[in-house]
Structures are given as structure tokens and as C-alpha cells.
Amino acid sequence: MLRIATRQSPLALWQAEHVAALLASAGIQTVLVPMVSSGDTDMRPIDGTRQVGLFTKRIQQALLEDEGDIAVHSLKDLPTEVNELLTLAAVPVRETVTDCLVSKSGVKFSDLPNGAKIGTGSRRRAAQILSRRPDLNVEGIRGNVQTRLSKLDEGFDAIVLADAGLVRLEMADLPRYHFTFDEMLPAPGQGALGIEVRANDKQALEAAATMDDMATRAAVTAERTLLSSLHGGCLAPIAAYAVVDGDVLRMSAVALSPDGRKRIDETDEIEFANDLSAAVELANRISQRMVDAGAIEMVRG
Ligand SMILES: NCc1[nH]cc(CCC(=O)O)c1CC(=O)O
């Protein structure tokens, strides 16, 4: 019986149960072990004064202390720094990656009235909104998906959320507009799950391997390699989306100044034959061009 360590937010529990179902379909029995994480209770805005990895550390700790065998993360919340005792053992199929503008009316981004008040706690989202619509009034909001949605009753015209979270929480019938990739590129790893196990736990490694999807893993490897090359961390105004299309892996990326006034956009593709080295090479090419154009200084603001 493998133990799945999970946070207790509704989204985390959905994701852990999803992984339990994937494993069950491969004939592997599991039990959920819920943990308390400070990321769920801390309502301070996410900014430079808070560490990255807040959501994922508690679950990693559970593995290291042998309270669980399998950690289920939202991959975009998982820092790119590697802990040698843990392995990213699987990345299941990614279904939806876009960001959504959620409002009472479902208004399109380009139809928002001048000066509309938009809630997001993410620098990546704030910078991209201001880049395309400098007239908008972007304000920080925090908390889980349900808490953030309540802001629509408290003076916010719209908030920005990942489509993946809304679909998983069965909120897909909320009025919402799907951003185009030109308006808003997602966070590296957005919409994907990351399955971590202890690096020396053969049984868990084998179980996780049954869930791995090579095309998704290649895409998120490219996105996360780029993020780490730009020394971004998951809080930086850096966005990237990669996808396998036939025998090609393609990626678009953007780095912005936090105020959205400056941006560097890059896109490129590489031949892909089920090997992660192509993903790393694609990321290196794109990140080199972005670094040469001044991306590292730009994202610091
Ligand atoms: N940072 C919080 C978080 N982590 C993962 C998701 C949703 C699922 C995903 O994007 O993979 C969310 C909510 C959101 O960004 O709206």
C-alpha cells in the first residue's frame, strides 16, 4: 500500500485523488495522508518577502520523514532546485494550461472597461496584464481558489485563475474568458502535476512510471529549464508554454519587467523523438537569447 502525501486544500485533495485513481487503474493500491501546509493558512500577499516552495515543502518533508511515499504537486508550484533525495518520478498528461479571466459577466480581456480592477497575486499575471492593458488597475489577492473568487463580490471586476484549477474544482461553468497565449502565457508547468518520490524507493518509482506522459514531460522540462536558466523561481514575471506537435517540440516564452512596460518574447521549435535532451536544448537556445537581451535584470524590475 503506497501512501500519497497531500495538502488539504480542495484542489490538492482533488489532485491526490486523481493520482490515486490513475494508480488504481494500473492495479496499485494507495491511501491518502493529508498534511497541514503554511501556504494554505498564510494570507499575506505572495511577494519577494516570502519564500518559494511554500506549498510543496511540507509534502516533500513528509516523504523525507517517511510519512508518505508519493507527493503530488501542482508542478508550477514546485521549485526547480533539485533535492538529491527526491525524484520527479512522473508527469501525467496535461489537459488544460490556459489562464482565465473570471468575472460576473465573462467579459473578454480586450473588452474590459478602462481602469477596471483586476485581482491577481501573481507577478507573472500582473506584468502580462499591464503589458497589454496599462490602463487596468491590478491589485494583489491571496488565498485558495474559493477565497479569490469571493473577491468578485468585493469590488473586483475580474480575477485571473488557472483553467486547470477551475476545471478540477468543477467550476468550469463560471463565466470566464480564456486568455489567448498572446495576451497571457501560462506559468512554466501550469496545469501539469508533478509526482515526487524518494529517489531510492524502487516500488514508488515503478508505480509512478505508470503515470508518466513523455510529451507532457518534454514540454514541462523545456518550460522549467528555461525558468531555472533565467534564475526565475516560481514567483518571477516569466511565462512559458511548450507543446509537442507531431515530431516537433515548440515553445513560446516571455520575460517582463514587473510593471509590464518592458518585455522580451521568444519562440522556437526543435525536432522531438521522445528524448528530453531536445527539451533542454530548446530551452537553452531560448534562454540564451533572452539573457543576451537583458531578461535577468528585467524580471527583477
Ligand atoms: N498558485 C496556486 C495554484 N497552483 C496550482 C493551481 C491550479 C492548477 C495549475 O495551474 O496547475 C493554482 C491556482 C491558480 O493558479 O489559479
From TrEMBL:
Cofactor: dipyrromethane
Cofactor binding comment, as recorded: Binds 1 dipyrromethane group covalently.
This protein's UniProt keywords: Porphyrin biosynthesis, Transferase
Domain Porphobilinogen deaminase N-terminal: start-end pairs: 2-204
Signal peptide region: none
One GO term describing the cellular component: cytoplasm
EC identifiers of the protein: 2.5.1.61
Record-listed S-(dipyrrolylmethanemethyl)cysteine modification sites: C234
Transmembrane segments annotated in the record for this chain: none
An example molecular function term from Gene Ontology annotations: hydroxymethylbilane synthase activity
Enzyme superclass (EC): transferase
The keyword Transferase is annotated on this UniProt entry: yes
Catalytic function, reaction form: 4 porphobilinogen + H2O = hydroxymethylbilane + 4 NH4(+)
UniProt domain Porphobilinogen deaminase C-terminal: residue ranges: 219-291
GO biological process: protoporphyrinogen IX biosynthetic process
Coiled coil: none
Pathway connected to this protein: Porphyrin-containing compound metabolism; protoporphyrin-IX biosynthesis; coproporphyrinogen-III from 5-aminolevulinate: step 2/4
Other facts noted in the record for this chain: The porphobilinogen subunits are added to the dipyrromethane group.
Subunit text: Monomer.
Family classification: Belongs to the HMBS family.
Biological role stated in the UniProt entry: Tetrapolymerization of the monopyrrole PBG into the hydroxymethylbilane pre-uroporphyrinogen in several discrete steps.
Protein name as catalogued: Porphobilinogen deaminase
Native organism: Rubripirellula reticaptiva
Gene responsible for this protein: hemC_2
